[in-house]
Protein backbone atom coordinates (compact mmCIF):
# COMPACT_ATOMS: atom_id res chain seq x y z
CA UNK A 1 0.00 0.00 0.00
CA UNK A 2 1.38 3.40 -0.97
CA UNK A 3 1.68 6.05 1.74
CA UNK A 4 1.05 9.75 1.10
CA UNK A 5 1.72 12.07 4.04
CA UNK A 6 1.13 15.76 4.79
CA UNK A 7 -0.14 16.65 1.33
CA UNK A 8 -2.80 19.16 0.35
CA UNK A 9 -4.99 18.26 -2.63
CA UNK A 10 -7.05 21.08 -4.16
CA UNK A 11 -9.38 21.07 -7.19
CA UNK A 12 -8.14 17.77 -8.59
CA UNK A 13 -9.09 14.14 -9.00
CA UNK A 14 -7.24 11.86 -6.58
CA UNK A 15 -6.97 8.13 -7.26
CA UNK A 16 -7.30 6.44 -3.89
CA UNK A 17 -7.02 2.69 -4.55
CA UNK A 18 -4.35 0.91 -2.49
CA UNK A 19 -3.21 4.15 -0.81
CA UNK A 20 -2.98 5.30 2.81
CA UNK A 21 -3.33 9.04 3.25
CA UNK A 22 -1.93 10.47 6.49
CA UNK A 23 -2.52 14.09 7.59
CA UNK A 24 -3.66 15.10 4.11
CA UNK A 25 -6.31 17.65 3.24
CA UNK A 26 -8.69 17.39 0.32
CA UNK A 27 -10.49 20.51 -0.91
CA UNK A 28 -12.96 20.42 -3.80
CA UNK A 29 -11.47 17.11 -4.93
CA UNK A 30 -12.96 14.05 -6.55
CA UNK A 31 -11.80 10.90 -4.79
CA UNK A 32 -11.67 8.22 -7.48
CA UNK A 33 -12.04 4.61 -6.37
CA UNK A 34 -11.69 1.93 -9.05
CA UNK A 35 -12.30 -1.24 -7.05
CA UNK A 36 -8.74 -2.07 -5.97
CA UNK A 37 -7.48 -2.41 -2.41
CA UNK A 38 -9.43 -0.15 -0.07
CA UNK A 39 -7.81 3.19 0.72
CA UNK A 40 -7.16 4.40 4.26
CA UNK A 41 -7.48 7.97 5.54
CA UNK A 42 -5.83 8.80 8.87
CA UNK A 43 -6.03 12.30 10.39
CA UNK A 44 -7.19 13.77 7.07
CA UNK A 45 -9.48 16.73 6.41
CA UNK A 46 -12.18 16.91 3.75
CA UNK A 47 -13.93 19.98 2.34
CA UNK A 48 -16.41 19.78 -0.55
CA UNK A 49 -15.22 16.33 -1.62
CA UNK A 50 -17.09 14.01 -3.92
CA UNK A 51 -16.58 10.39 -4.93
CA UNK A 52 -16.26 8.86 -8.34
CA UNK A 53 -16.51 5.12 -8.77
CA UNK A 54 -14.56 4.01 -11.84
CA UNK A 55 -13.54 0.65 -13.29
CA UNK A 56 -14.76 -2.39 -11.34
CA UNK A 57 -16.27 -0.19 -8.60
CA UNK A 58 -18.27 1.76 -11.16
CA UNK A 59 -19.45 -1.43 -12.86
CA UNK A 60 -20.55 -2.84 -9.49
CA UNK A 61 -22.63 0.24 -8.75
CA UNK A 62 -24.11 0.17 -12.27
CA UNK A 63 -24.99 -3.50 -11.73
CA UNK A 64 -26.75 -2.72 -8.43
CA UNK A 65 -28.55 0.22 -10.04
CA UNK A 66 -29.77 -2.04 -12.84
CA UNK A 67 -30.92 -4.70 -10.35
CA UNK A 68 -32.80 -2.05 -8.40
CA UNK A 69 -35.19 -1.64 -11.34
CA UNK A 70 -36.00 -5.37 -11.55
CA UNK A 71 -37.67 -7.89 -9.26
CA UNK A 72 -34.35 -7.90 -7.32
CA UNK A 73 -35.09 -4.44 -5.87
CA UNK A 74 -35.79 -5.88 -2.37
CA UNK A 75 -32.39 -7.62 -2.36
CA UNK A 76 -30.62 -4.41 -3.33
CA UNK A 77 -32.43 -2.61 -0.51
CA UNK A 78 -31.40 -5.35 1.97
CA UNK A 79 -27.81 -5.03 0.78
CA UNK A 80 -27.87 -1.24 1.29
CA UNK A 81 -29.43 -1.59 4.74
CA UNK A 82 -26.72 -4.12 5.68
CA UNK A 83 -24.06 -1.67 4.52
CA UNK A 84 -25.58 1.16 6.56
CA UNK A 85 -25.71 -1.08 9.64
CA UNK A 86 -22.08 -2.13 9.19
CA UNK A 87 -22.91 -5.74 8.35
CA UNK A 88 -20.85 -7.56 5.76
CA UNK A 89 -22.80 -8.43 2.61
CA UNK A 90 -20.49 -10.42 0.34
CA UNK A 91 -23.15 -13.13 -0.12
CA UNK A 92 -26.66 -11.82 0.26
CA UNK A 93 -29.20 -14.62 0.59
CA UNK A 94 -32.50 -13.17 -0.59
CA UNK A 95 -34.74 -16.06 0.46
CA UNK A 96 -33.46 -16.45 4.03
CA UNK A 97 -33.39 -12.71 4.71
CA UNK A 98 -36.87 -12.27 3.27
CA UNK A 99 -38.19 -15.18 5.32
CA UNK A 100 -36.46 -13.93 8.48
CA UNK A 101 -38.31 -10.63 8.25
CA UNK A 102 -41.76 -12.30 8.54
Account of the protein in words:
- The protein is α/β, with parallel strands linked by helices.
- It has helices spanning 55-68, 73-85, 94-100; strands spanning 2-5, 8-10, 13-15, 19-22, 25-27, 30-33, 40-42, 45-47, 50-53.
- It has 2 domains: 2-53, no CATH class; 55-90, no CATH class.
- The chain starts with a strand and ends with a helix.
Outline:
The chain is α/β, with parallel strands linked by helices. The protein is 33% helix and 30% strand.
N/C terminus separation: 44 Å
Number of strands: 9
Strand order of the largest sheet: 1-4-7
Sheet/helix structural class: alpha/beta
Approximately what portion of the residues adopt beta-strand conformation?
Answer: 25-35%
What gross morphology would you assign?
A: elongated
Number of domains: 2
Stretches with pLDDT under 50, minimum 5 residues? 96-102
Amino acid sequence: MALIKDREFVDEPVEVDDTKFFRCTFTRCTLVYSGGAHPAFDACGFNQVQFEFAGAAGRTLAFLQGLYHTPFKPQVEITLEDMKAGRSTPKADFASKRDASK
